[in-house]
Structure formats: structure tokens, C-alpha cells
Amino acid sequence: MASSVPAKTPSGRSIEANPRGIPKAPFVHDVVEHIGGQDADTDKPLRDFQEMAAKYRFMEMSTEQRRRSLEEKIPDIRKTLAMVQFLKSRREKAAGQGDEDELEDEDAAEAEKGPLRTTFELNDTLYAEAELEDSDTVYLWLGANTMLSYPLDQAIELLTSKLRAAETSLKNAIEDLEYLREQITVMDVNTARLWNWDVKRRRERRERGELEDEKKKEERD
């Protein structure tokens, strides 16, 4: 179950909320007390419950979209980071800075000195072959049609921080989804309890009215 922590509204009123500030839905223990009396109107409380449930559902939809986006983005970041780490390792080996055990095979070591043959994606179904010359920089897409060059070490640092941030955001999104579903359930229960209580009250009023009509009729007779 998702946890709640104390929080404050802009007016300074204390409320319970999760660590991202999503307020906790209040559970109505006593319907009569909540609406302000046995004869109070239920239309406004019902509208309030429905509006709050709609807000929670909107937040759930937005959070679900963010979760899906992160689940698509994280594997790409991991693959990019692994590739940059590979390029750095290859460059270090070519410069004689790698592990001596890894350079025992002279043929493999000699091969690493030549251009790296690989494929790159042109679109979803089309790839092309390429030869990569040894370089100490890489180009990274930053979004919004922006690409910048980074030294390998800086690229690894940037990608590592982005991966860590994305994984944290995904964890938070999953927790928020669980929390929001709990609040939606609470609001649905509140709405059902208030609606059923009002139906019962209307039926009792109708029955009392029918009894009073019968008594009046008997008195006239």
C-alpha cells in the first residue's frame, strides 16, 4: 500500500498526501455528519465526490502515460550508455590502458585498432552499415531536435545521471499509480455509500408519507 505523508495546502491547511503531493481521499465514516444533518441535501456532496474522483482519474491517466514513456525510454538510455562505455573501453585498449589479460589475444587487439564496423538505424525497419573511426567524442540526442557532442567521459556521466533519474521517475510513477487507484476506490465507495443512504432516506420518507396519508384517510372516515 502506498504511503501518505503530512502536507499543506496553499492556504496553510494540513492534509495527508503522498510524497509527490497527491492528496489523500477522505473516507466518509458518517454520512449524516458529512452532509451536515439528517435532512441536508446530498446533491452538492455527490457532485464534490464525482469531481474529486474525476481529478484522480485524470491524474491516473497522465501518470500511466508517463510510466509507458519511461518504460520505452529507459532501455534506449541503457543501450546508448552501454555503447559509449564500449567505445571508451575500446579506445583505452587501443591506447594500451586496458587490462593486460584482455590483450593477450594479439589478433583481437590488432582488430580493435582498426575501424569499428557496425550498423545504425535509419528508421524502424531500415539499417545501414558503417565504419566508426576511433574518436574521443560522441553525439547525443537531447530532444527537441537538438544534438550535442560530448567527450566520452562526460557522455557516460550524463547518460548515467539520466538513467538514474529515469529509473527513479519510473519507480515514483508506479507508486503514484497504486496510490491513485486506492484514492479512486475510496471516492467510489464514498459516492456509493452516500447514494445508497439517500435512496434509503427517500424510501423512508415516502413510506412515512404513505402512512400519514392512510392515518388522515382513516380519521376522515
Concise account of the structure shown:
The protein contains 4 helices and 6 strands. With 221 residues, the chain is α+β, with helices and mostly antiparallel strands.
Structure description:
This protein is an alpha+beta fold. Helix content is 61%, strand content 15%. It is built from four helices and six strands, in the order E-E-H-H-H-E-E-E-E-H. The protein has helices spanning 31-35, 43-94, 106-113, 152-220; strands at residues 5-8, 14-17, 116-121, 127-132, 137-143, 146-151. Strands 1-2 form a two-stranded antiparallel ribbon. Strand 3 and strand 4 (127-132) form a beta hairpin.
Name its key features.
4 helices; single chain; alpha+beta; rod-shaped; two-stranded antiparallel ribbon; 221 residues
